[in-house]
Amino acid sequence: MLTREQISDGLERARYVTNERVETAIFLALALEKPLLIEGPAGAGKTEVAKVLAEILHTELIRLQCYEGLDEARALYEWNYQKQLLRMQAGEQQGLRWEELSEHIFSRDYLLERPLLKAITAPSRVVLLIDEIDKADEEFEAFLLELLSDFQISVPELGTLKAHERPVVILTSNRARELSEALRRRCLHLFIDFPGTEQERKIIELKVPELDAKLAAEAARFVSAIRKLGLRKPPSIAETLDWALALVRLGVRELDTDAVRTALGVLLKHEDDRVKVESKASALAPRRR
Amino acid sequence: MARLRDQLVSFIAALRAAGVRISVAESIDAMNAVAAVGLERERMHEALAAALIKDEADRAIFDESFNRFFAAPRANRGEHPDQRGEQVSAAGGRGRPGEDPFSLPRDAALASPREEKSLSLPSEAKPAKKAAAARRHDTEKGKDAEESKDAERHSDRMRGRWERGEAQTREESPTPGIDATRVARIRAIERTAFDKFSDLDYDEARDALAPLIRRFRIRLGRRLRLARTGRIDFRRTIRAALQRGGALIDLKFRARRPRHVDLIILADISGSVRYAAQLMLELMAGARGCFRRVSSFVYVDHLAEADFEDGHLVMTPALDLYARSDFGRVLGELWERRTGLLTRAAIVVIMGDGRNNRLPARADLVREIGRACRAVVWLNPEDPARWGTGDSAIKQYAREVNALVPSRNLRELQVALAAIA
After folding, report:
1. N or C: chain B end with fewer CB closer than 10 Å?
2. How many CB pairs under 8 A join A and B?
3. Looking at this predicted complex, what is its ipTM?
4. 3-class secondary structure for chain B?
5. pTM for the full model?
6. Mean pLDDT per 10-residue run, chain B (421 residues)?
């Protein structure tokens, strides 16, 4: 059982800048053994939490990426039909009876383990990341609910498989659709929004140390400012870091209008956004003499 | 610790009264969470939020209630952990003098019409009243009680709203980037009944509309998306079967062609219904992309085409807003222009209270329209208890429409409109 301080240190060591709210939520997810639902805009660092947590716990990260039409077979397990068919054909030639054959083809060798089954059958505690659960549909959510409460599944041919140690479950959502109430009840909730200027500056300094401190502060201020402009896609933290690195590579000394214009494509991925920011660039980053 | 537990129970009850839905399992989680993190105020704040608040929109209400229930300790008191714990439990429940324990029920739909609600615990009165006064629930109280309390509630509302605004600006928002005041205001506006709207409320609702439109459009977009299964796609099925040695185990389907749905809106803009009508037109204008064609009409005693230009409603021809409603005649006018408009792909949404000044209702025309179109849905912004009273012809219309849905406030309106698809 980790203490809060250990979590705090672990996050720092993994270079994940955060605040009280995130630390408390992670601590509670571990202490109460409940899944953690993380919501927020794209690129704010939700998936990072799971990766960092796996580092802190020195364990494996098992990732299930959700998409529209994801079903049980793809998420839980599938029988390897081709292999089974081949085995059956070989068995026919050998003259085996069905009883012997069925023992073979319905064994763990012929089972394709997908992420959820891997998480259940893992020998030690793992971190299970169910990414972008809002992209999956409601049937999948209902199935997931059942799984999250018991952490056991019954494969008809193999019996019931129960988890030795409950994995730490993290779900992320971009709020593309409303999740069911039942799922929300089952989980603890954490909202990760874009960081404020100060936090962003810390992140830039931590992850792009080559960038000098004054420039990092200006960059953070600039990105915070353009997020307020109502863009189609506000820049995520990853893009901010890419942009900071780009400034280093381009040898930019100070953030003036020209510097901003050159590297804007790294930060903004839509043409209309770029045009909007360019027109405001002179207000945000004054032209220096 | 029993005192703290009781304190938490009251706090959760206050949140429920303010409209946050909290299940029993979550309240137990909250207790466990506090036990795990300890009594330090900041940590307890975040721990309770993680366990109780599952929707970021509720966060503002939570923060406000928390700050009232567990007031921040005085700076000059000792920092001994035991003392701090004492402060947390002692500060909660302190009522301000001069407040009457008056609270509005959380979910008006569940309350029976004649029931008078009052709080037992005075300690709950303060946050509940502030939260409730700020939220402006509509209630199902008896008419007399309602009238007498109306004036009082209005001034309370004004005061509550002003104080709440102040309180919000006093507290710094816990996470940067979220405008807690705005979120709380939007939530409050969503729950206000249309017939209690004033011009001020209407303007606020229009301001609040932008995020609501976006949210609505996303919800609607998902609903109207392609159905998952259509006819069997033979070629892909065979392809998949090759993997299985020829056995047709996996069936693949053709994606269905996108539904072409036209929307026809008929909105009553007389009297008090006009706020609801205008908001609905704005909402639908925002979701325009989801339908093939959207035709908006407004009516009082005649039909007029409606358009939103620069946020103002423009009618062609201009209607007299104070004429006597005559929906029967309006239906006739609609029926006359039915060619090309009322088709099998069209859904007709009527928003009105069905009050016809005892003029002929022409419910038969509604039946004809329903036959010609895919569906007819009626949204009634009036209190269901008053349907059928006075000159209301809604019961006659109700027989001929596919669905009759009450939409007394912005939230119900959104739900109803999303359910249409």
Report:
1. N
2. 87
3. 0.76
4. CHHHHHHHHHHHHHHHHCCCCCCHHHHHHHHHHHHHHCCCHHHHHHHHHHHHCCCHHHHHHHHHHHHHHCCCCCCCCCCCHHHHHHHHHHHCCCCCCCCCCCCCCCCCCCCCCCCCCCCCCHHHHHHHHHHHHHHCCCCCCCHHHHHHHHHHHHHHHHHHHHHHHHHHHHCCCCCCCCCHHHHHHHHHHHHCEHHHCCHHHHHHHHHHHHHHHHHHHHHHHHHCCCCCCCCECHHHHHHHHHHCCCCCCCCCECCCCCCCCEEEEEEECCCCHHHHHHHHHHHHHHCHHHCCEEEEEEECCCEEEEEEECCEEEEECCCCCCCCCCHHHHHHHHHHCCCCCCCCCEEEEEECCCECCCCCCCHHHHHHHHHHCCEEEEEECCCHHHCCCCCECHHHHHHHCCEEEECCEHHHHHHHHHHHC
5. 0.55
6. 85 87 91 89 91 86 86 54 39 38 35 35 39 38 44 48 42 43 71 74 73 69 56 78 75 66 85 79 73 83 78 75 84 84 85 84 86 87 83 84 83 76 57
